[in-house]
Design a protein that fits this description.
Blueprint lengths: L6 H31 L4 H11 L4 E2 H8 L3 H13 L3 E5 L7 E5 L1 H24 L3 H22 L11
Antiparallel strand pairs: 1-3, 2-3
Helix pairs in contact: 1-5
Length: 163
């Protein structure tokens, strides 16, 4: 039977996709709550995440990366700088260029606190399972990931537990 036309397989794939989406949202909920306490708008979060994943950027490069206009991004950066979330520095190689980077406090939060916030719900859920069930969950997810890699020709983006 053609896999694309197997209703059971399609239904199972849909259920798994919904479960994975809900799991992802659940894991992000504590981090999203922390962002909400910081009163960041969606565009500010996009700018912050883009800056976090780089050492620093010029305003021009940042505008291109987030696909927003120069005036919009400039205003966002101004407001973030007023709140101490980003720093502007003159580029040492070209003094005409200003480089924008997340502040040390933001970088520390993203490196230390953010992973704790996203891991906590998963740790709490795994703690409720027996060792056998934990290994079964890990094995099933690893198999799914390997199957997706094989089906899409993709490579793994992160580490996986040994078998």
């Amino acid at each position: 039977m053609n896999r694309d036309r197997d209703p059971d397989l399609n239904s199972l794939a849909h259920m798994i996709e919904l479960d994975l989406r809900e799991i992802s949202q659940t894991l992000r909920r504590p981090l999203d709550a922390e962002y909400a306490r910081g009163q960041l708008t969606a565009p500010q979060r996009i700018v912050m995440q883009t800056l976090y994943h780089s050492e620093s950027m010029s305003l021009k490069d940042l505008c291109e990366r987030v696909s927003l206009s120069h005036s919009t991004v400039s205003g966002i950066v101004d407001r973030l700088q007023e709140r101490g979330m980003v720093d502007r520095r003159t580029d040492s190689a070209d003094r005409r260029v200003t480089r924008i980077a997340v502040s040390p406090a933001v970088r520390q939060f993203m490196q230390q606190r953010a992973p704790q916030l996203t891991a906590r719900p998963l740790i709490e859920a795994l703690a409720q399972l027996s060792g056998k069930d934990r290994r079964a969950v890990a094995r099933a997810l690893r198999l799914l990931r390997e199957g997706l890699d094989s089906a899409t020709g993709g490579r793994r983006s992160g580490p996986s537990e040994p078998r």
